[in-house]
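Students often ask why we bother predicting the structure of a whole assembly rather than each chain alone. The short answer is interfaces. A chain on its own may look different once its partners are present, and contacts between molecules only exist in the joint model. In this exercise we take two input lines together and write out one structure for the complete complex. Read the inputs first and try to guess which parts will touch.
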Amino acid sequence: MRDRPLSREETRAILSTSDSSLLDVVDNLLTKGVVLSGDVVLGIAGIDLIYARLSVLLCAADRVLDRRDDAAGAPRP
Amino acid sequence: MSDVYVYAVLGEAPRPDVGAGLSDEPLRVLRSGDVLAAVGEMSARPAVTEAALRAHDAVIRRLAGAVDAILPVRFGSLLPESSLADLLRVRARELIEALALVAGREQMTLRVLGEAPAERDRASPEPDSADLGPGARYLAARRDEWRRAREAPELAPLRPMLDPLVRAEHVTRHDTPPLLASVYHLIDRGAADAYRAVIGGAPPGAVRLAATGPWPPYAFAPEGLG
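Now the answer. The structure tokens for the assembled complex follow.
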């Protein structure tokens, strides 16, 4: 595990992934859950970028899945 | 007294074989009245990395498999043990109610994707607001806005099939096409296949639905500070 916060580029790389499970993990762990510490959000580096990119990356994942479905001839849900 | 990193609030002690925390630290249970917290000793808040996020999620999943009711705590919650005990005591009633809601249940996450926000989002104010004064109209508009932010009208065709499965629902509207909304559903453990079958059977239309899960009930944990 890294012992330093992610750089902006590293955060962008994570958030550009089409791995929908990672997107859900980011959504669940950083925007949900019991808040026990008032400084928890302020203490997380790059949180604003994460919020800003979450929507974009979810949509990117959907487009990737679209192409896979089309290539496989699978019906759209 | 040292700081503790808090993973989850629990209604019961987990089995002893739930493994270690995200930094390989031993997990232990701190009890305050009827509420328990799963914690690990840590000297500094972990950095936000993919590995740390996945490790934290793995701990939550192991704990969820070892207890009937779990409320995940937000990533990065490091605080003095005495402060945690105080918070658990002050928020006991709220946490016990939330634990009762999630007992024996888990979360499915539904992304609603489409090209435009739902038509009703652009609807005019309710007719009776015309008779109101400026202040009341403002408040009515805020109320409607608040209500719309917590609704997913796109799911209306699926409600007859979804309602028997869904025990609670939280909606976050994004309205930034193509991502229109995130809907978090609390379902009974073991009902995920039935839930996915309902979503998979949705008729083709203006929106697409993408379901993931089951997850521990992250979206059904109370957020506010005590």
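Check your guess against this: DSSP finds six helices and nine strands in chain B.
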